Amino acid sequence: MTQAIEAAWRSDRAAIVGSLARRFGDLDLAEEAVQEAFLAAETSWGDTPPDRPGAWLQTTAFRKAVGILRKRRPAEQLDDDAVKEALDPDTGERPQGWDGDDDLFALLVTCCHPSLSAEASIALTLRHVAGLHDDQIASLFLAKPATITKRLVRARRKIVDAAISFEPPTGDPLVDRMHNVRRVIYLMFTEGYLPTAKAELHTELCDEAIWLGRQLLRAHPSECETLGLVALMLLQNSRAQARIDEDGALVRFDEQDRALWDRDAINEARTLLSRTGHQALGKYQVEAAIALCHVAGDEPDWARIADLYVLLAQIDSSIAVAVNRALAVGRADGAPAGLALLDELSNDPTATRYVSWHACRGDLLGQLGDHAASRSAWLEAAELTDNPTERTALLKRANDAHTPPST
Amino acid sequence: MQYMLVLTSPPTEPTPDTFQAWALYTRALADAGALIDGAGLQPPETATLVQVRGGERVLTDGPFTEAKEHLVGYYLIDVPDLDAAIEWAAKIPNVSVGSVEIRPAVPGTQSGDMLAAMAANESGGA
Questions:
Q1: Which residues of B fall within a CB distance of 8 Å from A163?
Q2: pLDDT for res B67
Q3: Fewest C-beta atoms under 10 Å: which of A53, A223, A316, B92?
């Protein structure tokens, strides 16, 4: 692939697939036509790509789609409206005023339709919007390519058989649909962010999720929660290099080499968050604000973080938020205050089965100087996790529990 | 596109108010040109299960499966796409206590289409 084609693959491919899927109501046809258009580009561009590569590919893909339909259907059935329109030079090919962002957005919203499972949506989005091949997606999830292919075939079948529209809704339904798009993108990101033995493979998944978040932002630039989501992912990803050591082990936040943090990403996240104007406060914005408080100064601003967790707990009543709030309060107001919040949760079996509840206790008990109790809490946490990298890190904390923590 | 809205719910006692709600919902479907058919069903205790095994007719009293939620009714609707079907499903009068399963119909298997296709074949063959 030449550089120009590679660039077009990234910048224009998904929008063209989206425009064809919308026009013909057929994702398979759209993908096939776009594939043929890129093959045509390889033979005809040479060293001099056209002035507007995206428009060239769009026009070519439209013609290819019509050609495929001609082959598929007998000539007398070619009076199909969509084909007629596509053949009409005034309406069929629209590179002139073509809004690619809008077409990419439509495709993304379809791939993340709430009637599809999250894992189906993630696979569809990576395949059709990000343009990865089935085996690339499989390697990101450490899955067999056949498993991913099967998942994609089933998901595309559901789009066809259940008549999921390629046209995004308007008004309130669109708000719900965008919420689900953000959920899918963030799930994809956290999947990549989880520490695993093959951490280097997974950073790509984080990069794809951030790219998708940016595309969503291009289509709706002032959507506060999308600004929050992209900021949150950038902030978490800014510490990717410092989070894992050469042996693949997790590095504690307070032991990370700050020189390895990506300052550009942190600054970009700060700018994005400032664009929200702190209106219509949502989960991703608050989480991003918390993440920013961790990395903005020389030390985390625990008092502000604790305040933000109060806000987050009103939006998200999950145990994870309650535990993180207890840790922040423990840092801001002293370990006893944090431990008291954890004790309040102890009647909830989901809390006591939760790795972080025990890890947080271990941390705060250590801060208090009760090293024996701290050690057993860390061991309890290590017992509960099924992630080997995390278990190693938790066992290390248990072993270190006899020495006072460095913070 | 035709969809069946399959309604399941825990057992509830019908009241005049609920009848009115169903009637209004049904009329809204009809007014929108989306209604094909629909009915509420008697409770599962009234069910009779029929099987033919080795040429023998086997009848069993009661539903095939024991479940907390039972089939209580259905609508068959015709709308442009899944989003439209979801909108209608979310407005079903008992959706806050039960569930609605949306099942797309297999194109060409709707009874009207099948009968029309058969009639066309028969007249063509004659």
A1: 1, 80-82, 104
A2: 75
A3: A316
